[in-house]
Amino acid sequence: MKSNEEIVREAYRRAEGNVTDADGFRDLFTSDGEFNDVPNAMTFRGDQIPQAITGLAAVFPDIHRELLAVHVIGDVVAVELRIQGTHLGAFPTPAGEIPPTGKRIDVPTADLWYLRAGKIEKFNCYNAANVLLAQIGVVPDFASAVEAGRAIATGA
Question: How do residues 81-128 score in pLDDT, each as one tens digit?
């Protein structure tokens, strides 16, 4: 049986842009496994898990994860990494798609992998989504946020 670290490293390999083996990535999870994109409040369960891989690869086809540190604590694997790639695909948002900019991303990330009996039970990805958005040229609309906050505070 492979070690927990080997399983997690295999998951990263299958999610690389030059591989993008979404079904193989899914196979590393338990039948009821889940993938949590924490900053974006998105959870993928079971057979939805491949969508997380294919969706990101569609936006950043050359996606790469540079693993900086891997720590195994029993059935938990903690990884510090950088998600890197080029924005070559449309980036979906609730307000519409951000067209490809050709800009590079290099996003600091921390991942926690929880394993059970040689399978991934839960994967929590904590990527710096604000850094990713800034790197592709998306700036926050603070004026609208301030106005909306005032409206809420005054009951308007």
Answer: 999 999 999 999 888 999 999 999 999 999 999 999 999 999 999 999
* Structural tokens at position 42: 């998105």
What CATH number does residue 68 fall under? 3.10.450.50
Transcribe 75-92 into DSSP letters. TEEEEEEEEEEE--S-EE
| Pair 11, 28: CB distance under 8 Å | yes
Helix, strand or coil, per DSSP, at residue 132: helix
d(CA 11, CA 5): 10
The domain in which residue 129 lies consists of 4-154
Quote the pLDDT of residue 141: 83
- The total of structural domains in the chain comes to 1
- Exposure string for 23-41, b = 16+ CB within 10 A, e = fewer: ebbbebbbeebbbbbeeee
